[in-house]
Amino acid sequence: MKNDLQLPAGQRKKLLLLQGQMFRLGVIEAKQTLAANLHAEALVKSAVSHLVDGGTEAARQLFTLDALLDGRLGMFLPVLASSAGFLSRRHLLKPAAIIAALGATGYLGWRIVTQRQNKVREQSSDEFSGEQGQPSWRK
């Protein structure tokens, strides 16, 4: 810092020692973060996250009518093959399949619930379609 040179020597020394401690703490924290990210669970989370993100984007681009007519199916297959190869090498295929099955089940459950809620909303809006807010059966 610019004002460090104006400080007395004792205070500069204390400041440098504190800066050194902060640097060492940063190095220790970085090592711990790196060690935590190299565990199998963190690798599975990272792989699944990568697969889901890449898969949804590829599926979004692939499953449009224009994409199917243009024949862009080939762009999805290399991603699928490399992902399956990575998971099988790391013996993570079974946990990934379980996570994918749970995710698909959760998504389907969410879709069913939202469709039911939409039907209920449509029915309730049809009942109260009167001009004064009265149900149509009261007119």
Task: Give a verbal description of the structure.
This protein is mainly α. The protein has one domain. Helix content is 77%, strand content 0%. The protein has helices spanning 9-37, 40-62, 65-70, 76-89, 93-127.
What portion of residues belong to β-strands? under 5%
Count of separate structural domains: 1
Please give the largest β-sheet.
none
Net shape:
elongated
Q: What distance separates the N and C termini?
A: 81 Å
Chart the SSEs and their pairings:
Elements lengths: L8 H29 L2 H23 L2 H6 L5 H14 L3 H35 L12
Q: What's the quick description here?
A:
The chain is mainly α. The protein has helices at 9-37, 40-62, 65-70, 76-89, 93-127. The termini are far apart.
Labels describing this entry:
single chain; 139 residues; mainly alpha; 77% helix; elongated
